[in-house]
Design brief:
Blueprint: E1 2-6, H1 9-15, E2 26-32, H2 35-43, E3 49-53, E4 56-70, E5 73-76, E6 80-85, E7 90-107, H3 117-120, H4 139-157, H5 164-189, H6 191-210, H7 213-217, H8 222-229, H9 233-244, H10 248-264, H11 271-277, H12 283-294, H13 298-307
Parallel strand pairs: 1-3
Antiparallel strand pairs: 2-7, 3-7, 4-5, 4-6, 4-7
Helix pairs in contact: 4-5, 6-8, 6-9, 8-9, 11-12
């Protein structure tokens, strides 16, 4: 397998025979291969490539065939996709064949310094999604996205002046807002898949509790649960939020509270014992969470149950 690591955007351009970037912290590439070039790529597609970037990237491309491996997941590339990657993520490409036209934006986090997007970009969780959670665009959505890429491309190739960066960032933020909108649409379109993921999420919690892992290993983290599901923790959280209106952490806490209600009423079981069985290191943390979610303390819950 060929290992590639790009420490800068300039290095990425040089190694791929692109013109040097207009700005070392930002670039946009628009490729349009001829049919003969596409055929050549197909002939050379057998090599696997592992690639890591030290910058953000956004790619819009139609992938004819091939596979991208990211973490524990695989993505079979048969449709047009919009891919987002954050710095220091690693992807493995296998047997890739792209269509003739593609767009690629690369930008270093320092390019965002002093702009509102520096903080806002953190809310765009899709930069940390796995590749199998990529955004699939409808023809209408793809047309609009291409127009945004072209707006950025036009400004990028203008003579750089004091307005250039602000205009580019404005277009980039618009692109990210549309991507966020289209992801919300994709969550709705995949409601059945989302329900399946939520069911699997609950099943994993049930198994974890049934095998006494809560008591032995503590409360499972969102990262751990996402790994069991084979998805990124950001995607899992966003999917569960779209399906239930509550975050993954909220769902874990609600699960613990529901289980605690049964444990608290077991004969000769103290509140501390219940807390430890549910993976809480300190019983006071459990009592605090219980009161926050139910409105009464564990002791008050036991007393009220005894009166009924």
């Amino acid at each position: 397998m060929k290992m590639i690591s790009y420490n800068s955007i300039s290095e990425f351009h040089k190694e791929n025979n692109f013109s040097p970037p207009e700005n070392p912290l930002f670039s946009i590439i628009h490729t349009q291969m001829k049919e003969s070039e596409t055929s050549k790529c197909e002939e050379e597609k057998s090599e696997s490539i592992s690639m890591t970037n030290n910058f953000y990237s956004i790619s819009l491309k139609n992938i004819i065939s091939g596979e991208i491996v990211y973490g524990r997941t695989k993505y079979d590339c048969t449709n047009g996709t919009l891919l987002f990657t954050a710095p220091n993520q690693t992807m493995v490409f296998k047997n890739m064949v792209f269509s003739s036209e593609a767009f690629h934006i690369a930008f270093h986090k320092d390019y965002l310094n002093g702009s509102p997007l520096f903080d806002k970009i953190k809310k765009y969780h899709f930069f940390n999604y796995h590749v199998n959670e990529a955004l699939h665009l409808s023809p209408k959505e793809e047309k609009l996205m291409k127009s945004l890429f072209k707006n950025i491309e036009t400004e990028y190739h203008n003579n750089q002046d004091e307005f250039s960066k602000e205009i580019i960032l404005s277009h980039l933020e618009t692109l990210l807002k549309y991507a966020d909108r289209y992801y919300k649409r994709q969550f709705l379109d995949r409601k059945q898949i989302n329900q399946t993921l939520h069911t699997r999420f609950k099943n994993i919690l049930n198994e974890y509790f049934a095998t006494q892992q809560l008591e032995e290993k503590g409360i499972p983290t969102v990262d751990w649960l996402a790994k069991q599901l084979g998805v990124s923790h950001r995607y899992m959280s966003d999917t569960i939020k779209a399906e239930t209106g509550k975050t993954a952490v909220d769902q874990i806490n609600l699960y613990l509270i529901e289980e605690s209600k049964n444990l608290l009423l077991a004969p000769n079981t103290s509140i501390s014992e219940t807390a430890y069985k549910l993976g809480f290191e300190y019983p006071q943390y459990f009592s605090r969470l219980f009161k926050k979610k139910t409105g009464i303390s564990p002791k008050e819950y036991i007393e009220s149950a005894g009166m009924n």
